[in-house]
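// run 5 | inverse folding | seed 20
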C-alpha cells in the first residue's frame, strides 16, 4: 500500500499547482490553463505562472525567468492548506481548491509523509513517460503537446484527425481501476467491433469502463514505445 499512498499524496500536492492555473491564468475551453508539463531540468511538473512540484522530495516551487527557482516550499510534515497557502502568499491572490468535478476520489492526507523510495520511483516513471511520449508525438501530425492533466494525473498527448477523430496516448501511475502504473492508448469515437481486435504484442485491450490498450507496470522506454506504436496502429487500421 505504500506506493499507492505516496502516489495519492503526490496527486493531491499537484492540485495546489493546478490551482494556480485555475485561479490566475485566463481559462481555456479545454481546461488547458490548469495542466502541467514535465521539466527534466527541475525534475518537476510545472504549471501556470511557473508554479511547480518537484517529485523527489515533494517540494513546491516557483520558477522565474531563465528557469531559476525563486521560492521553494517542502511539503513533508505539512498539509494541503499549507500547500495552497504557500502559493497564495507568493502570488498575493486566492488559489482555488478543486471543485466537485475536479476533486480526487480519495481524501487528502492529513499530513504529507510519502516514502522516499516511492517518490524516487514516481520521479523516474514520469520522466521516462515524458521522454517516450515526446518521441511518439514527434512522429505524428496534429499531435498536442505532452501535458499532465491534474484530475487523473496522467501525462499524455492527443493526435487529432480530419473528421473529428482522435487517438490519445499516455501514462499514469495508477488509479482506481489499475492500481499499478500503466500506459494507455485510446480512440475517439469508440471503435466498432472491439471484440474483433487482435491481441497486442505487449499489453492487452481494456474493455471495462472504457476501450483501449493498456500496458501495466514499470516498463523500459523501448517496450513502452513499442506498445504505443502497436496500439496506435491497431486503432487506426
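// decoded
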Amino acid at each position: 500500500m505504500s506506493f499507492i499512498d505516496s502516489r495519492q499524496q503526490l496527486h493531491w500536492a499537484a492540485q495546489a499547482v493546478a490551482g494556480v492555473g485555475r485561479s490566475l491564468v485566463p481559462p481555456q475551453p479545454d481546461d488547458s490553463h490548469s495542466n502541467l508539463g514535465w521539466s527534466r531540468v527541475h525534475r518537476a511538473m510545472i504549471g501556470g505562472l511557473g508554479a511547480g512540484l518537484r517529485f523527489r522530495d515533494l517540494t513546491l516551487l516557483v520558477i522565474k525567468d531563465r528557469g531559476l527557482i525563486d521560492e521553494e516550499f517542502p511539503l513533508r510534515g505539512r498539509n494541503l492548506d499549507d500547500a495552497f497557502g504557500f502559493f497564495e502568499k507568493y502570488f498575493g491572490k486566492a488559489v482555488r481548491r478543486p471543485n466537485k468535478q475536479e476533486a480526487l476520489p480519495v481524501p487528502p492526507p492529513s499530513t504529507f509523509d510519502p516514502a522516499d523510495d516511492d517518490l524516487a520511483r514516481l520521479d523516474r516513471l514520469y520522466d521516462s513517460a515524458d521522454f517516450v511520449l515526446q518521441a511518439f508525438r514527434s512522429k505524428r501530425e496534429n499531435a498536442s503537446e505532452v501535458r499532465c492533466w491534474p484530475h487523473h494525473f496522467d501525462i499524455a498527448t492527443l493526435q487529432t484527425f480530419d473528421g473529428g477523430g482522435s487517438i490519445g496516448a499516455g501514462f499514469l501511475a495508477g488509479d482506481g481501476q489499475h492500481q499499478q502504473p500503466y500506459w494507455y492508448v485510446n480512440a475517439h469515437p469508440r471503435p466498432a467491433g472491439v471484440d474483433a481486435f487482435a491481441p497486442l504484442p505487449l499489453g492487452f485491450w481494456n474493455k471495462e469502463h472504457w476501450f483501449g490498450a493498456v500496458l501495466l507496470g514499470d516498463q523500459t522506454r523501448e517496450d513502452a514505445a513499442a506498445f504505443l506504436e502497436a496500439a496506435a496502429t491497431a486503432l487506426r487500421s
